[in-house]
Design a protein that fits this description.
Elements (H helix, E strand, L loop, with lengths): L1 H21 L9 E2 L2 E2 L8 H4 L11 H8 L5 H27 L5 H12 L2 H9 L4 H19 L5 H10 L3 H16 L6 H26 L9 H5 L9 H7 L18 H14 L2 H5 L5 H20 L2 H13 L17 H10 L12 H24 L4 H6 L9 H9 L5 E5 L4 E2 L9 E2 L2 H4 L10 E3 L2 E3 L4 H11 L4 H6 L2 E7 L9 H5 L3 E5 L3 E5 L12 H32 L2
Helix pairs in contact: 1-4, 1-5, 4-5, 4-7, 4-17, 5-17, 5-18, 7-8, 7-9, 8-9, 8-10, 8-25, 9-10, 10-25, 12-15, 13-18, 15-17
């Protein structure tokens, strides 16, 4: 009976935590907050394939959503994936704790689940809108479990599924590949070299969509704007310093994407509570130091905190800029706080170890019964402390995660553009918007995911009062021409067939009225105005064949891994049935 409870209680508990966090978002509507944009329908544009001017940061995410939204509502797809991510993060932490610490009782597993789900990293990434990054985060404990199975000579399919799931974003694929390589490269087990080579092969397939897209487009391989390294460096939270903020799984670069409880002295108290729970397990884990996996994950956790902290210093920023100037694609590394996710598996293990005996207790003996009671009480106190440490993670991170309703104008404009030619330029200038229906936080312009044609985006970001240059050179040329009031044939020569003016958001319009005045208005209401630009030049089209094949390989890796894993579990259950 106890074993049965240990199998079904952690997933139910983790699902409860996920629902408590996402509660408001689960109602009707769409996720639209900072970098998070969900729409009723997405399309297979060059941007979705990752072969537009901008770097392939949302690959294969955008193409996957485009495929799924042909059958299901896109907003429902995104919310479902996000709910699954938080659920799997907590459940996976419990499964990992049981795999690494076989004597861990149920209360200890629940502490591990709480650490994995209820922490500042999850809160800040939700507020920043990095919902797909949390998929990679959720895959980390499952990757540990799958890699342990490979070390024991079992199937590779679970590891394939984990790497592919994490590969929904480039960052997620690197996070999971790092954990898998560490676990499989450590001493112990047979054929270590083969394990490493096999993992690199799977990671390459899981990363193929963004690697191939980058090779086809050439975007993202040039030098990243040096200003981006300082702008996206980890940030010190009140009374913690940069290292303390990162050790508490916080410290995101954007001070606006932080729960209210992390903006004052309570941040130090919350961090102390989290680290106290983790610290209780350090000594028990040290007793298991002969286990190379525990040592390896511990080293990864230390580096995941120390390296971003050092990268936020003056010398660290100088090194980062030098790397950015010499290493193609190094811009992927500049949001350094996101790599703190690598500490989560070790934090969850330490929290579980704090309440796990070295040997299984005999519940018949009175002394053992007393130990079990102490474990339950201590675990309950730890869980309560973790929840108190970040009280406003509940209910949409202080009700910041709320669904929005798009005006019907967007669907009308989308219908006008369906089957047409030419790219779309947008006004006002910039990539972020503040619509009356989107709340007070800036949101990424939904036009690129809402419309069936490619929408030009400069990639330029306004961060902490400064500007970080983007990769969209053609989009920048079009934007400058519009702001300068150049004749429409200038933007037509740049491949623009349409100009969409988003009327209800503030922003720079410059002298664009001079360009727009002679153009035909195709659609107009209080929210949007769509202009047709005559005779747009055809732009150099990039073949989607190689990119589509890479996406297909990624999808087959994910679905194949999941299918084989599920069939294996069904077969195992049938084998153990009396």
């Amino acid at each position: 009976m106890a074993s049965s409870r240990s199998s079904w209680t952690p997933p139910l508990y983790s699902l409860l935590l996920a629902v408590v966090i996402l509660g408001p978002l689960l109602g009707p509507g769409y996720l639209l907050l900072r970098d998070a944009v969900s729409t009723p329908r997405s399309y297979f544009t060059d941007s979705a394939w990752g072969i537009a001017d901008a770097a392939a940061r949302a690959v294969p995410q955008d193409a996957a959503i485009a495929a799924l939204s042909t059958v299901f509502d896109g907003g429902l797809v995104v919310k479902t994936i996000l709910l699954l991510a938080l659920w799997m993060a907590g459940w996976g932490a419990a499964v990992m704790a049981r795999a690494v610490l076989p004597t861990a009782p149920l209360p200890a597993l629940l502490v591990a689940s709480t650490v994995a789900v209820w922490n500042p990293y999850v809160a800040e990434r939700l507020l920043q809108g990095h919902w797909s990054l949390l998929v990679g985060y959720a895959a980390l404990p499952w990757t540990v479990v799958a890699a342990l199975a490979v070390r024991q000579g079992r199937s590779w399919w679970a590891l394939a599924a984990c790497l592919a799931a994490a590969g929904l974003t480039p960052t997620g694929s690197l996070l999971a590949a790092t954990i898998a390589l560490v676990v499989l490269a450590l001493p112990g087990g047979a054929r270590r070299g083969l394990r490493v080579v096999g993992t690199l092969g799977l990671a390459a397939v899981a990363s193929a969509p963004w690697l191939v897209a980058t090779a086809v487009s050439g975007s993202g391989v040039e030098q990243a704007d040096p200003a981006g390294w300082a702008a996206f460096a980890a940030r010190a939270e009140p009374s913690l310093g940069t290292f303390g903020s990162l050790a508490g799984l916080g410290g995101i670069w954007n001070s606006d994407a932080v729960p209210a409880s992390r903006t004052g002295l309570f941040a130090a108290m919350g961090t102390a509570l989290l680290l106290a729970v983790v610290a209780l397990g350090v000594r028990p884990l040290m007793r298991r130091r002969r286990n190379p996996v525990i040592v390896g994950l511990g080293v990864v956790a230390l580096l995941a905190i120390a390296v971003p902290a050092l990268a936020a210093t003056g010398p660290g920023l100088a090194v980062a800029r030098a790397v950015g100037e010499t290493v193609p694609g190094a811009g992927l590394l500049r949001d350094s706080q996101k790599w703190v996710a690598l500490a989560m598996p070790m934090y969850a293990l330490a929290a579980a170890a704090a309440f796990s005996p070295r040997r299984r207790a005999n519940p018949v003996r009175p002394a053992a019964l007393s130990a079990v009671q102490r474990t339950r009480f201590g675990s309950a106190v730890a869980i309560l402390a973790l929840l108190i440490a970040l009280p406003d993670l509940a209910w949409g991170v202080g009700n910041a995660l709320k669904p929005v309703a798009y005006p019907a104008s967007w669907q009308a404009v989308s219908a006008e553009l369906d089957g047409q030619n030419g790219d779309v330029a947008v006004l006002p200038a910039g990539m972020f918007r503040r619509f009356p229906y989107s709340g007070t936080a800036p949101v990424l312009d939904p036009a690129p995911r809402m419309l069936p044609l490619d929408v030009l985006q400069t990639g330029e970001l306004i961060v902490a009062g400064g500007t970080v240059r983007g990769e969209g050179t053609r989009a920048t040329a079009v934007e400058n021409a519009l702001l300068a009031g150049e004749p429409s044939d200038v933007i037509a020569d740049l491949g623009v067939g349409w100009v969409l003016v988003e009327n209800t958001t503030p922003g720079e319009l410059g002298s664009s009225a001079q360009t727009l005045e002679p153009l035909d208005i195709v659609y107009s209401d209080e929210h949007l105005t769509l202009y047709r630009v005559p005779d747009p030049a055809s732009t150099d089209s990039r073949s989607t064949t190689a990119v589509a094949i890479a996406h297909l390989a990624w999808a087959l890796l994910l679905l194949g891994g999941l299918a084989v894993g599920l069939l294996g579990r069904i077969r195992a259950r049938r084998t153990h049935q009396p």
